[in-house]
Amino acid sequence: MKKMELSADIECENDVKEQVLDAGTIEIPEEKENTLTQKTDAQNLQKWINSIPVGEYRKKIDDVIAGCKIPRSTFYNWKFGLCRIPELHKDKIEEIAGCKIFVR
């Protein structure tokens, strides 16, 4: 299990069995860590997408899809947190975006 500091942004799901260690610290089971990272990556990707001006939105999305060599459905699965974004693709997305998007 991994110890993690709670912040106001993180909401714990009810099905996560947690043990409170100190005030503000919980233990997260290993199987839940990937889900937490996946959701955080999706939220960061959505924040970047929402910051793109309306006229450039479609072009940027097409650039990411072409650059990562993925189908459009995979991109939208990443966007909505339905599957994990591989590290190699995170690098490519940040290269296309021209800024740091993901926390590593």
What distinguishing features does this structure have?
single chain; 104 residues; mainly alpha; two-stranded antiparallel ribbon; 4 helices; 51% helix; globular
* Percent range of helical residues: 40-55%
Give the low-confidence spans.
2-23
Give the rounded overall mean pLDDT. 77
Number of helices: 4
Biggest pleated sheet: 2 strands, antiparallel
The Rg value, from CA coordinates, equals: 16 Å
Question: What is the distance, rounded to the nearest whole angstrom, between the alpha carbons of the first and last residues?
Answer: 19 Å
Which descriptor suits the 3D outline? globular
Structural class given helices, strands, pairing?
Answer: mainly alpha
Tell how many strands the DSSP assignment holds: 2
How much of the polypeptide forms β-strand, as a percent range?
Answer: 5-15%
What is the string of helix and strand elements?
A: EEHHHH
What spatial order of strands do you see in the largest sheet?
1-2
